[in-house]
Amino acid sequence: MWADRDGARRISPLPPGSIEIGGERGAVRLSPHQSPNGCQGRRCIGIDVAKAWLDVATSGEERVWRVRNDSDGITTLVADLAARAPQLVVLEATGGHETAVTAALVAAGLAVAVVNPRQVRDFAKATGHLAKSDALDARVLARFAQRI
Question: Who has the most CB within 10 Å: 13, 36, 55, 135?
């Protein structure tokens, strides 16, 4: 739960211990493990979330891989990412489809930021990435993680 600017209590879909910056839906949400300096020179992960799939990209790599957005796929993803020990994992707020994977990543002790999709889209446009696909979105999210 958190209180907005008017003092009204809201139920947050975030795992316990996480915070939502700005108190706005889709604002940057940080786990208690979050570094405020981004990934600069370290491994960052971008995850494009859809109802059925999670497309995953690592900063500095071209390969994008896909897992199902279900309990088996999330378990596989968490194990893989825990072995990679990324500095930060970034996902877009997708109306709730990101909640299960975010909770699993935070429970595994990984730093997670759930960001506003519009901010990521503006970042992509500003850096000249105008095409849109799930794989490209995952790569843009990984690059965005390096800069935030």
Answer: 55
- CA dist 141 and 93 (Å) reads 12
Distance of alpha carbon 67 from alpha carbon 77, whole angstroms: 7
DSSP 3-state assignment of 23? helix
Global pTM value: 0.71
Q: CA 98 to CA 50: how far, in whole Å?
A: 8
Tokens 């930060």 belong to: 88
Taking the domains of the chain in order of start, what are their residue ranges? 2-147
Q: Evaluate whether the domain defined by 2-147 bears CATH number 3.40.50.
A: no
Q: In the prediction, which pLDDT does 15 show?
A: 56
Statement: residue 98 has pLDDT above 90:
yes
Predicted pLDDT at 114: 94
- The tokens for 138 are 């995952």
Distance CA 88, CA 38 (A): 7
Residue 103 burial (CB count, 10 A): 17
The total number of residues shown for the chain amounts to: 148
Tokens in use for 8?
A: 């009204």
Q: 3-class SS at 114?
A: strand
